[in-house]
Structures are given as C-alpha cells and as structure tokens.
Amino acid sequence: MSQIAKSSPLVPPALPEAHRQTGIPELARQSLNESSTRKSRWPARLDLLQSLSGLFLALFLVAHMAFVSSILISQELFYRVARFFEGEWLFGQPYPILVSLVAAGITCLLVVHAWLAMRKFPAGYRQYRAFTAHKSRLRHNDTSLWWLQVLTGFGLFFLTTIHLYDMLSQPSMIGPYESADRVWSGGMWPIYLMLLFTAELHGGIGLYRLAVKWGWFVGDEPDAGRRRLRRVRHVFSTFFITLGLLTLLAYINLGRAHAELAGERYVPPGNTLNTTVNAGKH
Amino acid sequence: MITLFRKPKPGAAPRRLTLHILRCNPADPASKPYLQAFELEEAEGMTLFIALNEIRATQDPSLQFDFVCRAGICGSCAMLVDGRPALACRTLTRDYGSDITLAPLPFFELIGDLSVNTGKWMRGTAERLQTWIAQSEAVDLDALEARMEPALAEAIYELDRCIECGCCIAGCGTAQMNENFVGAVGLNKIARFRLDPRDTRSDAEFFELIGDDDGVFGCMSLLGCHDLCPKELPLQTQIAFLRRKMAVTGLY
Amino acid sequence: MEIIHSDVLVIGGGLAGLRAGLAAQKRGQQVIILSLVPPKRSHSAAAQGGMQASLANALKGAGDNEDVHFEDTVRGSDWGNDQEVARMFTHVAPKAVRELAAWGVPWNRVEAGERTVIIDGKPVTLTESADAHGLITARDFGGTRKWRTCYVADGTGHAMLYAVSDQTIAAGIPVHERREAVALIHDGERCHGAIVRNLIDGKLSAYVAKATCIATGGFGRLYQATTNAVINEGIGAAIALDTGVVPLANMEAIQFHPTAIFPAGILVTEGCRGDGGLLRDVDGHRFMPDYEPEKKELASRDVVSRRMEAHIKAGKGASNRFGQHLWLDITLLGEAHINHKLREVKEICQYFLGIDPAKQWIPVRPAQHYSMGGIRTNADGAARGLRGLFACGEAACWDLHGFNRLGGNSVAETVVSGMIVGEAIADFCASTAGELTVSTALIRQCFERAQSEFAAIANHHGKESASLLLREMQATMTAQVGIVRHGEAMNAAVNTLQDLLLRSRDLGLSGRRSGADPELTLAWRLQKMLKLALCVSYGALQRTESRGAHFREDYPQRNDADWLKRTLASWPNSEQTLPTLNYESLDIARMELPPGWRGYGTRDAIEHPLTAGRQAEVEATRAALASSDRHAVQAALMPFRHLLPAHLRGDNARIGQHPGENA
Ligand SMILES: Cc1cc2nc3c(=O)[nH]c(=O)nc-3n(C[C@H](O)[C@H](O)[C@H](O)COP(=O)(O)OP(=O)(O)OC[C@H]3O[C@@H](n4cnc5c(N)ncnc54)[C@H](O)[C@@H]3O)c2cc1C
Ligand code: HEM
Ligand code: HEM
Ligand code: SF4
Ligand code: F3S
Ligand code: FES
C-alpha cells in the first residue's frame, strides 16, 4: 500500500492554471499572482481619513451650532462670541481674517471629505440604477439611510459652498444685526433652512455610521447596540434641528425688525468705541 | 398541550396563494424575463419548498429552482421573497400575504428562473481569499490533538456557521455596485480564520487579501448582510473588527 | 463529444468524495470531482450530532479505545458487518478527527472542572480532569458504551464538510459542480470513467480516468418520509447497477431515525437524546424504559424506532392533523444548553414547527435516514465487478455498518474510508493495472447509449407523469418496506414497483424548456430510482429473518444459521423487472467477535452452527494471551493493520499514554 510520509506538508500548493475550472473573477487571479508584492496601504488610510474628516466636520457642526444659537440667549452674547472667534480675547482687537482662515480650513476639509466620500457614490447610471433598485426592493433601514446620506451629501456640496463663500469673503460681517440682515434682507433664509436639515441629517447619520463602522459604542449585543445608537441618532438630529430652527427663527425675527435699517452694524450696549473703530474699517 | 402550528383557525377555508415568479431562461437567447403567476391552495405549515414543488409537479414541470436539504442548513435555496433575500425552504407562506413575488438572487450568475450559481462564486471567492487553514507545520496523526480553549472553539464555530447562501451579498448595496466586492461572506471567513490559532497567517498577510476597496474598505456599513443573514452571524461586529485591524495594519 | 481526462474521477463532492480526492491528489494523481451541487451543499452538511472516535478525553469516555468502539460497532450492526473493516475504521477514526482538528474543525473541547449534565432524566455533576482540558470532548450517542461522539455543537457535518472542502480548494482540486454522472464508461471488466450530464445546459460529455470512485451518498428519496436531502436519489449506485456486473449489497438494510420532526421529516439530532432528551407519549409518559430498561432512549436506532412505532400502534401516539407521532422532550436540558449545543435543532423547531424547544416538546416520528447498503467493495474500496471502479461513503457497502449503523459512525466512515480508499486509488493508478487503455470507440459507444437514453424519454410522448409515479413509489416504500416489514406487504410492494417500472417506460413530458430541463432530469432519474427501490424491496422480501434495521413481523428472529450473509443485487439485463439476487456468506471463523446478543433489543437469535466453536477459539486465544498487551491479543484474533496504508498503522495516543503504550 501507500508509502507516503505521515507528515506530508499541509501547506497548499499554488493553484495550477488548468485547475481553475470553477471560474474565478479576473481580479482574484491577479491577487493570487501578485501575492508576493505588497498591497498598497492607501485604501486603509483613505478610509481612516474619510472617517476622521467626517468626524471632525460633525464635531465642528455641533460646536458651530452652539455658537450661532447663542443669539437665542442674547444679541450681546452672540456678538461677544463672534468677537471671541476673531481673536479679540487674545490680541485685544478682533481680526476677522482668523474667521476666514478657519473657513478656509473647513473648506479644505470639506473638499477632502467630499472627494473621499464621492468614491462611494454610484459611478455612472448602471450603478445608480443598481443601487436604487436594490434599495427599494430591500426596504432596509440602514441601506436607505446611506442613500439619504448620499443625497444630503450631494446637497451639502452646493449649500456649504454658498455659505462658506460668505464666511470666507465677509468674515467681519458676523454679528446679531449683520447675520440677521443676511438671513432676512439678504434672502438667505431658504438656503439656511435647507442647509440646516441636510447638514444635521447628514452629520447625524454620519456619526451613527462611524459608530457601527468601527464598532464603537456597540457593546456585546450588536443588535441591541445598534438600536441604542439609532435612538441616540434620532435625539441628536431632532435636538439640533430644533435648535437650528429656533435660531433661524430668531435671526428671521430680528432681521424683519431690523429690515428698515439693514446694513447697520450691531453695537453692544456700552461699547461705542470699538464699534466706531470697526465701522471705520468698512 | 402544544398547538403544532401557530394559526390553527379551525374550519377556516385555506387561502388561495398567487406566486408571481420571475421566469428567465438564459440558455435560450430569445427568451425575455417575465413574471408568471401561479395559483395554488395554501396548506397547513406550507413552506416555499412545498409550494414550489407542488407547482412544478402539477402546473409547470420546467420551473427551475434549487433545493437540497430543505431544512435551512445547506444554503442552496436563497431567493428574493417579496424583494428580500431569504432561504425559501424555511419560509412559511403563512407569514406572507396571499400574493408573493419570487425572484432569483441578484448579483450571481443566473442559471434559470430561481436558480443562480452561488457555488461558482463562492469557490472563486474562496480561492481568491484563500479561506482555508494555512498551516506551516504538519500534523502527526498519531499524537494527541493540540489543545484549544473551549470558549475559543465555540467562538470559531460561531463564525464557521456560514452556509454560503449568498443572502448577505444579495442584501448588500455595495455588492450591487461593485461586482468584485468580497461581501460579508468573504469578510466573515477571513475573520473566522484570523481567530483560529491553527491558521498561522499574520494581519499583514490578511491585509493582502482584503485590504482594499473590494475588501473590507469597500464595505459601507449598510448592514443588510447582518440583518438578512439566515444564520444570524454577527457580521456587523466582525466586519467592524476586521476594519479596525486592517486599518491599523494599513498605517505602517 | 467533449472528452475530459484526469487520473482520478471522483463522483460525489460530499465528505467521502472530497476526502478520497484529497488523498489521491496528495499522492500526485490528478483528480477531478463531480457533484450535483456545490460540494459544501452536499448532504454531509446536514449531519448534526457528531462523529465517533475513541479519543477517551471526556470523563465519560475514560477507558474508551478502539476495542470498545469496535465491539459497539459490531453489535450495532447485528453482526452483519465486515469485522476487518470495522477494525480498520475504529483504528483510523481518532486519526481522522485529529486531522480534521488540524484542518480547522472547531470541535467542542473539554472544560476542566464541574459541569452538570442530564443523564437518564436527572441532573448529574461531572468533574472533568485538568489533564483533559482543551482536548476534544465527546457526547453520548445511541448504542455506545462510552461517550465517544466528537461534535461541533449540532453542526458537526457542516464544520467537517467545510474544513475538508476548503482543503480541496487549497489543494487546487477542481470540482465540476452541477454535473451528474449518468453512466459509467466500461467494457464489462474495466471502468474508464463516466458519461456526465451538465445540469445547467443539459449537455453530455465523457470524463475519462484511470480510476473512478463513486461517493454519491445515500438514496433516502426512495422514501416519502426521509431525513435525506432532495438530491439523495441514489443515482451513483444506480449507474453502478446499470453496468450489470457491479452488485449492490444489503440494499434492504435501511435505517430509520427515531426523531424526525413530524410531518416534515427534518431530522433533529440523536444528540438531543444523547444529551439527555426523553421520548414521551400522548400521556406525557416516558415509555422507553418500559421496553429497554438498560439503554432506554439510547438503544440503537433500529431498536428505538421500532419501539416507537410499536408504541404508536398500541394507541399511545399523540396526534395532530397530519397523523400520529410521539414527543421528544428536551426542555429539561435548559435554554443555555439548547442555545449553544443544539442551535440547529432550535432553529428547525422555530422555523418549521413554530415552537421553542426549550419550552415545548417536539413532535417526532421515525423516518428513513440512512442506507447501510450500496456498491459492494472490498476493504480497499475497490468495487466488485469492474476493475478501476471504487466506492466510498454512504454510497458504498464497505460494510462497516452491517444491518444497522451507529449514530456518529457515518460521517466518521466518510472521512476514514476517504483516507483509505483514496490511497488505494492512488496505488491503483500508479500500478500497471491502472494504465489507461480505453479506446475512443468504447467511449463513443457509452456516450451514444447515454444520449439515446435521454432522447428516448424526451421523444416518447407517452401518457405517464414522472412526478406522479415518483410519489407513488415513495408512498409504497414508506408504507410497505418501512420500519416494520411483513412478507405480504412487501410482496405487494414488489408488484407495485415492477408495475411502476413498466409504466415509467411510457412517460410523456411537456418538453417546455431547453437546456437541462428539470422535467427530463426527473423522468430519467425515476427509472433509475425504481430499480433501486426494487433492489431494496425484493431483497427485503427474500430475507426471511430480522437483523438490525431490517425487521420482519413474520420473521422476528435474527437467523444466523441461514442469513449470516450479504445480499448482492445485480441487474444483468436491462429488460429485467427484478434484480438478480446472490448471497455472500460472512466467515464466522475469522470473526474477532462471534455473533451474540447485542446488549439491547430482543435476545432470541437462531445461532449459526459455527458460532460456538469460534467463540471457544476466541476465548482460548484470549486466555493464552491474558498477560499480553491488548494490541497483541487483537492481532492474534484478527490481524488488520496490514490492510491499512502504512502511515495510518500507528497506535493512537490518549491522555496519560503515549503511542505504543498499553491502555
Ligand atoms: C439529516 C442527517 C443527519 C445526519 N447526522 C449524522 C451524524 O450526526 N453523524 C453521522 O455519523 N452521520 C450522520 N448522518 C449520515 C451522514 O451525514 C451521511 O451518511 C454522510 O454524510 C454521507 O456522506 P457522503 O460523502 O457519502 O455523501 P453525501 O454527503 O450525500 O454526498 C454525495 C455527493 O455526491 C454527489 N452526487 C450524487 N449523485 C451524483 C451523480 N450522479 N453525479 C455526480 N455527483 C453526484 C452529490 O452532489 C454530493 O456531493 C446524517 C444524515 C442525515 C440525512
Ligand atoms: C460637500 C459635502 C459633503 C458630501 C458630498 C458628503 C458626502 C458623504 C458621503 C457620501 C458619505 C458616506 C460615505 C460612506 O458611507 O462611506 C459621508 C460620510 C460622512 N459625512 Fe459627509 N459629506 C459632505 C459633508 C459633510 C459634512 C458637512 C459633515 C459634517 C456634518 C459630514 C459628515 C460625515 C460623516 C461623519 C460621515 C461618516 C464617515 C464615514 O462613514 O467614514 N459630511 N459623507
Ligand atoms: C468656518 C466656517 C463657518 C462659519 C464661520 C460659519 C458661520 C455661521 C454663522 C455666523 C451663521 C449664522 C448665520 C449667518 O451669519 O449667516 C451660520 C449659520 C449656519 N451655518 Fe455656518 N459657518 C461655517 C461653516 C458651516 C458649515 C461647514 C456648515 C454645514 C455643514 C454650516 C452650517 C450652518 C447652518 C445650517 C446655519 C444655519 C443655522 C441655523 O439655522 O440656526 N456652517 N454659520
Ligand atoms: S454570511 Fe450569512 S448570509 Fe452570508 S453567505 Fe454566510 S450564512 Fe449566508
Ligand atoms: S451589507 Fe454590504 S456594505 Fe458592508 S455591512 Fe454588509 S457588507
Ligand atoms: S434547501 Fe438547504 S437551505 Fe434551503
């Protein structure tokens, strides 16, 4: 009978070409043949970068909402916050260029994020049809949510451009009256309304997706963890949309009240000097 | 003591079911896909396995579909039931309305009607991802087996339970757009072998297999896979886990 | 005519076929495997409960070894098996489990310390030794004296099949899926491969090989109530029968599994009872101890199935709208155990019955489960009748199981026989006998014959419906050639089946589909299946005794005097409507364990005149070698190691013991 050694090696031999009768995708063939060359690390890095950029943008949005909603407390507070970001607390006087710089930075981040995310967009009509058909067939929550994220992302592409252009070009025009006038008399409120919904939905879903994607805050029971995360996402989006609506309403009201005087700059009570200095610049 | 089936409404007349089945015969270039309706009377405890066989026996002997174990364990019979992938053999008609639409799994090569070639794709993916225990040492069959922690063995089995049915692929939007995507089934297998101490591959070696946009970084966390896997594999956590490991590997 | 060449053609991608293919390929032979379905979908995947191998790691397995496993197997077979083969098998089984472990099968492991198990309906605390911690554990199964069944929760077959299949992929062995072998290429003496039908496009091609191995599994679909997959139609055995020269052995030896869910017939594993589940009747009474005070629910399958049917007949069955059944109660095992170790069972109950087995009892009734019979081979797996033809796994009658196989011995057989037969195939291919000498004329002749077989059906336009005839055959088999058999019923069955065979020559198809029309496929297979059904029923009718799973009301005793022999059914002339039966005696003079009482079931066998003599001989040998090592005693009684490939001959290590040491 047979005489093979009892410890014949179990390491599989390479697949001979003739044996590939079951049909391997072309790509597989390559990956098999190239297995000696090291695979590029870039997909990993880009994926990380996509998540980091999204995370950062979402956190920025949270902070930003807190900042613009300070108008709800008082006009003066909003004014102070604006000056704060212009570096008044540091240099003794405001430098609006700082806001432009931040806006430029955010713009870069957005471009990076959008570019990375766009790799995931359906490429061409065939993929678009394939995905939308799949989505409506499947009626599956997370799949539909992703589509919403694509749509809102697409919207954000335009909306943030407009908004950021404002902030880049007129960094000094941030203040209770200035902002309110832009919103109402400048006719920006529909843009803001859209921006608010798209950004909050996109950011909320994005954060949720980050958690499931990397397995954060999921716990031992993935299904329960996801239900929990979904609740958090709802609370998040609802809270910020409500907050944003109230804020926007405050700007609109202020803007309507101030419409006659549109263009006038806000002067905080008891701080005339600063205002004149500022006004003189324009 | 026990009611055998959930809805024993005594005396109620059985429902008439209409199965709308997507017919297609790729072997015949002239044939165009169309939906064909078959009517039949629902029976107690009827599964799609029973219903489809009845249709084939009494109405259209040319109807193509695949069943093997008819017990939900071999993964042959996945199809779209009202648009969602499911194992037909363990799908009870009573859980659906009286109109049920059946279509073959998308993504895979169509053989005819409800029959698709999942096996071919799975073999290709196995070769491509090298989903087997890659060992550097030979085993001595006369000696005691290597020890393993009981909990680890159970954890491996948890991931080994995949039946290669393809539901996760059919339920994955990424796969619909990218036909080279390895899908949750492929990623889960890598997770399974990575967990197994008998497999001596390193993360860098696994990175070679799944460290790109056709692998773990292609997954957009749509989670259709996790929610539709008939074996309820923990795909969500496994993919996230692999993503972390591969991302770290990708930093160097 | 497309011709595909290889050294070895394995027909069947289940555990047996894959393992045999791997063995041959490792010896340098080029192998092609054929399968009706992707190999991982083969019915081996359905094996839930486990695989027997005497590792003796678990506390309740302590003291186990090849000898005990051997004796259990022979008793289980009701002395109908080949004892040399049983020895080869029990010797290699531990190696097979260990090899599978190295290939990644996540066998459940021994956890040192205390654990509570259910034995005989009561919780018992076992303390597993620290020595065994992390080694492969085992559960209890019917008909075994030790806990010997290694398992992976209740997905053992799945885990095994995936591991072996992955190894064949790693080894680059091509599996041609969705192909059906429809005829063997042979000249009456030598087999040269097979004619194969592509189940996607319906085209035929010729696969020519030095050696052909049939590993096509069982033929449960001859029956209406069966635990088998729908592809288990026995075509592999049927094409061997069709040669006219290859006999099928012991086809009447059909096993019925006690616990198939009722009415779907889907199996819930023997592990349910092994782990402590109980059988109850309409009154909730646990009835098995009344019949089998010793082994109770864990007597061998044939015994339990028969007792269950008798109990139902005695009016103690519960009933639902589909008929009578009994209850399997695993509620006492607890939710945690069910969720971890009996998950498939839980899913099956949930999906097919809508019940939770941790809370409710499962309606069960015995159903056809396993075919002990099949293509008759020698210990090497070489088929009788044709050189170059081999068989292994459930399709073969290697004759490990005789008239009843023990739970857990079958998946073990697939792998073990694959290991052994694959080597024999490689040896054959390497020898001069294995040289390929086939003429293209012969290939063409076989090809055309197969082609005309299909054409004849497709173009006949008769009046019979294949699916109706099939149902009638299945109903006949379940009703009349089932668990409890009787001459009259079987006579009627044989007549019905002969009639069906004639009617199956007058089929009419609608012929609606090009390519591999499922209707044509069914019609073609029907004719083959009817022949197998006739081998089963006619063989059963002729065997006027009860042995193992073959139980006759009219001949309730095991009759060693007349029937210690194997039935060999062949079909030399295709015009015949009955198989030709021959018999092959078992040689008591060479038995290590002469016929006796099984330890359960009835105890009234009619003894063979040679039994007493051999018994005395065996006892004398044992007495003479009382002080020797158990391997030496065994070798003196019935040497077998020379039958094994050299690398499988070594002793098996167990804890506290090294290879070569005594137990
Ligand atoms: C529900 C169930 C549970 C079981 N549980 C256990 C258990 O716990 N323990 C145990 O030991 N045993 C168990 N068994 C028995 C055991 O699983 C089988 O006997 C064993 O797996 C058979 O393996 P095989 O390789 O011989 O055949 P299979 O696994 O059936 O494979 C047959 C192969 O042949 C192919 N084939 C068939 N005909 C053709 C053809 N004409 N041409 C080409 N290819 C063909 C098929 O595609 C398939 O790949 C169980 C059986 C059943 C039904
Ligand atoms: C130009 C505008 C934008 C576009 C086109 C865009 C597009 C997308 C798309 C398509 C995704 C999904 C990527 C994936 O699933 O892999 C995504 C993810 C994300 N986006 Fe945006 N987005 C934009 C702006 C923003 C903004 C302003 C925020 C902050 C609120 C943000 C936060 C996120 C987060 C947190 C994610 C999840 C990151 C990940 O999955 O790795 N995006 N974006
Ligand atoms: C550095 C960059 C940014 C600055 C300085 C800035 C500043 C402001 C200011 C001052 C307002 C008040 C209205 C106004 O003055 O016009 C505002 C409103 C708003 N901004 Fe920005 N923004 C920046 C970037 C972004 C980005 C990237 C997003 C979205 C992704 C965004 C979303 C919004 C929304 C939704 C509102 C409306 C708020 C509401 O409805 O309450 N902003 N922003
Ligand atoms: S992961 Fe689940 S859905 Fe995907 S193939 Fe495996 S069993 Fe099917
Ligand atoms: S559905 Fe697809 S995108 Fe990822 S999470 Fe599942 S593989
Ligand atoms: S037929 Fe096996 S899973 Fe449905």
Descriptive overview:
- The complex is a heterotrimer of chains A (282), B (252) and C (663).
- The longest helix of chain A has 36 residues, at 222-257.
- Chain A has helices spanning 26-33, 42-68, 75-85, 88-91, 97-118, 124-138, 141-169, 176-183, 189-214, 222-257, 272-281.
- Chain A is mostly helical and 282 residues long.
- Mean pLDDT of chain A is 84; it is low at 1-34 and 273-282.
- Chain A contains 11 helices and no strands.
- Chain B is an alpha+beta fold.
- In chain B, 34% of the residues lie in helices and 13% in strands.
- Chain B contains 9 helices and 7 strands.
- In chain B, strands 2-1-5-3-4 form a 5-stranded mixed beta sheet. In chain B, strands 6-7 form a two-stranded antiparallel ribbon.
- In chain B, strand 6 and strand 7 (115-116) form a beta hairpin.
- In chain B, helix 7 crosses helix 9.
- The termini of chain B are far apart.
- Residues 1-6 of chain B have low confidence and may be disordered.
- By secondary structure, chain C is of the alpha/beta class.
- Chain C is built from 18 helices and 23 strands.
- In chain C, strands 1, 2, 7, 8, 9, 10 and 18 form a 7-stranded mixed beta sheet that branches. Chain C has a 5-stranded mixed beta sheet with strand order 19-17-11-22-23.
- Mean pLDDT of chain C is 94; it is low at 658-663.
- Chains in contact: A-B, A-C, B-C.
- Bound molecules: flavin-adenine dinucleotide, protoporphyrin IX containing FE (2 copies), iron/sulfur cluster, FE3-S4 cluster and FE2/S2 (inorganic) cluster.
- One protoporphyrin IX containing FE is lined by residues 61, 64, 68, 99, 102-103, 106, 156, 160, 163-164, 167, 174, 179, 182-183, 192, 195-196, 199, 244, 247-248 of chain A.
